Amino acid sequence: MAFLKFNKAELVNLSYSLKREIISASKLGAYCNTSILTCNTRRYHGLLALTLDRFGGDRYLMLSSMDETLIVNGKQFNLGIHCYGDIYEPRGHKYIVDFNADVVPQITYKVGEILFRKSLLLRPDRDQLLVKYELLEAPSDAVLQLRPFLPFRNVHALTHVNDVADPTPSPIDGGQAFCLYEGFPELFLQFDKKADFVPGPYWNRDITYSNEYRRGYECKEDILVPGYFTLNMKEGGSVIFSASKFLEKPKNFASVYNEKIKTVGVVENYHDQLVRCADFLVTNHNSRKRINAGYSWLYTGLLRETLLCLPGLTLYAGRPEDFEEILDNLISDEKERLFHRTTQVEAPLYMASVLQKYIEFGADEKEVWKKYGPTVKGVLESYLPGVRKEVAMQPNGLLWAQQDGVALTWMNTYVNGRAVTERAGFQVETNAFWYNSICFALEMERKFGKKGGEFVSKWQAVADLVKKNFQPVFWMDRQGYLADHVDNNGQSTEIRPGAMFAIWVKYSPIDDELHPSILRVIANELVTARGLRTRSPRYINYTGAYEGSQVDRDLAYYNGCTRPGLLEQYIELAFRMKGASFVKKAEWLLEGFYEDLNKHGVGAFSELYDGDPPFEPHGAISSALSTSALLVAESLLNKYKKEA
């Protein structure tokens, strides 16, 4: 597809091309993430990062870069590129004439009469990177030299010159194996053609990651290069390089590469691209399916992100069979947060909404309640007085959340150890999900529970109490909106998106006649061309640009930045109230993300955007929340298009 291509003028412009990143991820938790020039600009960038159980299941960067040098007729052309402060050396990007990522990332170089191409394939089913090098045109035979940059470190860390690293190679079939530090697995570097290794270890010092510098982080690293591989190539010939955690069979590289390329398939439309991104975000490490919150630095298996994204990344991505497996693993992993304590007090209450979506999608509600009813009821019981320290039901039936200095909701950034948006007290979305969860449990228990059981009588009284007090506590008549939270000083009058959930949940505690007013305020104050702002621009501390130091960006993160992940609820509400007349607006809201597929993460959907025009993307380049929301929104749009 045209949106996954770049031309020479774009590629040689470093201020443009270094902001564009490629991302591939495997089902096993490995990833390949770098700029479209393969010049790393983040500490997280590299050609092969692996999830290693031996180190607690975190990701470790094994192969950072592979510098290619072509030697033709005695002349050397180095195709690599690294940043050293303000200097880029070598400047291999000047030879790039084409970049294409419609199947896998593919970079074409032209050096005089030489046309050379490399294609990057991260296997979805194995901890292995395959790189295909092709000498498409050349005036004579060429020698290809390849220098591997080996960091062997946690993706969140940096490495520096030390006397512990062991660059000694171990000869293997088709290449060499390396293990720089004790405890690490070996990294097997192999070729399907004869390749000689020339040892000559050295530290490539002070490689600078420009994105880390811009963000105010430590940004310089020293990486060990153990030597280089050298092999001969003829015009029209190719060689496949493998970097793997396993000793592979080089004779199989070509057949495996061709087979996996077919598996990846060609993206033919925007829906295909969404589904491909969704597939990247569902991992199956150790045969346990979980959701990764976003590449390349967010974590896998998070409670809030998994629950919010589960319907979108499974049901709406054409994989309903994954829904229960992922949910079962989450419940098994997150018992402490679900039933005892958490710093995201609304997250356990998402469970009911997720199950409601599952039933709405066609699941047997009796079987759903039989399997997950005990979890929903256990979550509800945990919010009663005396169970959780961070949140508890008050005499008015509402949940009060407070822990000094701690941000107890999804707005959880900190600056110098202090919560930016603490929101202590009655939070609007927490209490909306609380009421919905109670009503869902009551509905299911009346249908499928024990007749005459105490649950219905006990919790109906709580539901009545919440319904009675929610609207008087949160409704702001002058603004025609709901307070974001209510503390000891009264209502917080800021316009934030949490109020949206109070009318989005199936069982809303707000009178129906007030819903249009709330939606109108959201549309006027929060909706942008790239999702919903986290705060209305009318307030003095609104920050519409995610830029500057880490402190500046953390202050902006929930004080104006736009979240594509909130579009799902808004678009669903708008269609619910306006019907097919909202189709054109919905199309406009979604089209912008497809226009941006050449920005930030190439072919991926970003975590957040600036709250002000021109709405530049930021954050994780491939976000589970954004991808999931767009899949659901797309499905709603298609449904109402048919009705129209």
Please describe what this structure looks like:
The chain has 644 residues and is of the alpha+beta class. It contains 18 helices and 39 strands. The strands form eleven sheets. Strands 1-10-11-12-13-21-18-17-16 form a nine-stranded antiparallel β-sheet. Helix 6 runs parallel beside helix 9 (350-360). The longest helix is centred in the last third of the chain and has 21 residues, at 428-448. The chain starts with a strand and ends with a helix. The mean pLDDT is 95.
Quick summary:
The chain is α+β, with helices and mostly antiparallel strands.
Class derived from helix and strand content? alpha+beta
- Which ranges are low-confidence, i.e. pLDDT below 50, for 5 or more consecutive residues? none
- Helical percent range? 25-40%
Main sheet: which strands, in order across? 1-10-11-12-13-21-18-17-16
Q: How many β strands by DSSP?
A: 39
DSSP helix count? Answer: 18
What is the distance, rounded to the nearest whole angstrom, between the alpha carbons of the first and last residues? 29 Å
CA gyration radius, whole angstroms: 27 Å
Tell me about the largest β-sheet: 9 strands, antiparallel
Strand content: 25-35%
Q: Based on Cα principal axes, name the global outline.
A: elongated
Mean pLDDT: 95
